Amino acid sequence: MKSLHFFVIAFWLCSCSTDKETVFAVNELAKIPLGEAKVTKVSVTGDSNAYSFNVTVESPDTGCDQYTDWWEVIDLDGNLIHRRILAHSHVNEQPFTRSGTNIKLERNTQIYVRAHMNTSGYGAMVQKGSVENGFTPAELDVEFAKDLQKKQPLPAGCAF
C-alpha cells in the first residue's frame, strides 16, 4: 500500500505545471522574512545635551524592498528627541551599529530607543533607560506614538 501512495504522489508531482514565473515568485516571497527591527544595544558618550548614541539594530533586511530606515530616541510620553535616518539596507551586516550625534538630552531623562522598518513600521523590542543608568531591553507597543512615523525627518529613499 505504501508503494501505491508513493506512486500516486510521484505521479501527481510530475503532472503539475512548473511555470517558472510562478515558481520564481513563490521562492522570492519565501525569502522575505516576516518580522520587525529590534534595538539590541545602546551605548552613549558625550556631555549633557550633546550626546552621541551608538545603536545596534537587528532586522530582516532584504534590500530596499524591506529594510530598517531609521532608529529614534523618544521620551516616555512619545515625544521625538532624535531620529537617525538610515540611507540603505544592511542585508549582509546583521546586526549593525550606527551612531547619532548631538542628541539633546539630560542625563536622567528616561527614554526609549526604537527602530522602524519601511515595511512593518516600529519594532516592539526596544531599549529603555537613561544616560545616567544605562539601557535594558524592553517591549513597547508598536502603536505607541505611531504618528511619529509621519514626522520629519523622513528618509528620502534607499541607496541599496
Keywords, separated by commas or semicolons:
disordered N terminus; alpha+beta; globular; six-stranded antiparallel beta sheet; 2 domains; three-stranded antiparallel beta sheet; Immunoglobulin-like; 16% helix
Structural notes for this entry:
The chain is 16% helix and 39% strand. The chain has 160 residues and is of the alpha+beta class. It has two domains: 30 residues, no CATH class; 105 residues, Immunoglobulin-like. The strands form two sheets. Strands 3, 4, 6, 7, 8 and 9 form a six-stranded antiparallel beta sheet that branches. Strands 1-2-5 form a three-stranded antiparallel beta sheet, with no helix packed on it. Strand 6 and strand 7 form a beta hairpin. The longest helix has 14 residues.
Q: Quick recap of the structure?
A:
The protein has helices spanning 2-15, 20-31, and strands at 38-47, 50-58, 68-75, 80-85, 96-103, 111-117, 121-122, 125-130, 134-139.
